[in-house]
Amino acid sequence: AGVAVRTLQEFLAFFVWGHERVAAKLQQLVMDEHASPRAVGVIDASAHAKQGDKTPGVQRQWCGASGKIDNCVVGQHLLYTDNRPRNPFSCLLASDLYLPESWDSDRPRCQQARIPEQVRYRPKWRIAIEQVASAIGNGVRFNWLTFDEEYGGVAPFWFELDRLGQRGIGEARANFLCWPRRPHCRSAQSAHAPKRVDNVCRFSPLFTEQRFRRIKIKDTTRGPMVWEVKSARVHLADTSLKSHELSTPTDRLYWLILARPPVTGEIKYFISNAAAGVEVEQMM
């Protein structure tokens, strides 16, 4: 930039500047220069190991960089790629600090770390939704969003994507709940309760009466990546109705995809709010 490093450091550290305006300008520039009907947004969190206890948000928590519980800080990110087959453009659209509940409950500690009063604990999926909503408001358009089970395994996260009119596909844990068929009545009995997706894929006729299909996911340097999949549409379990103690099946149907790479045989489960006519090949 032709400016001394010290000057830039002072600008970032000591000057009051419009962070939200700069973030909005970045997203608007991305759309002006790299908008694409194939665009994909990637939601992800990353942790960085830290020593001591003064860095904002630091505590012992899961650290993906070290693969274990570690002393670290976590950032919640939204990334963008125009998804071109060759030489794709990719960049970071948004990044926010994940403030653990232990920090939020200790406001004097937050004040010492210069954390603004309005920055409070929010689940990572809630931060992600706010990032996506802000990006859409700045003109960013995603053909798809994708994410891991920390987001795809949270039913309210899907309902917020529905509210934004944004489709996505993400991994879910084996204990994520759904109904293969709408229950005949509301009851706490297990026969009428929502089922774990691993049990739905193992026992429901929706899956047992179909064979695995082999789908090429993409080409890699080692050759085509081919997975075996089964798919069906299911009702998710909605617990947002305060008038009911029991969860309620959604009126909307969602894709449940059972996938396994033949090389390892590892079972994975994916959820998507895509329409019924969307091909599984495209989602995978």
In short:
By secondary structure, the protein is an alpha+beta fold. It is built from ten helices and twelve strands. Strands 1, 2, 3, 4, 5, 6, 7, 8, 9, 10, 11 and 12 form a twelve-stranded mixed β-sheet that branches.
3D architecture notes:
The chain has 284 residues and is of the alpha+beta class. Helix content is 28%, strand content 33%. The chain is built from 10 helices and 12 strands. Strands 1, 2, 3, 4, 5, 6, 7, 8, 9, 10, 11 and 12 form a 12-stranded mixed β-sheet that branches. α5 runs parallel beside α7. The longest helix is centred in the N-terminal third of the chain and has 16 residues, at 19-34.
H and E order: HHEEEEHHHEHHEEEHHEEEEH
Low-pLDDT regions: none
Q: DSSP strand (E) fraction?
A: 25-35%
What structural category arises from helix and sheet content? Answer: alpha+beta
Number of discrete helical segments: 10
**Percent of residues in helices:** 25-40%
Q: State the end-to-end CA separation.
A: 42 Å
Total strand segments: 12
Mean pLDDT, as a whole number? 92
Q: How many whole angstroms does the radius of gyration measure? A: 22 Å
Shape: globular
Main β sheet profile: 12 strands, mixed
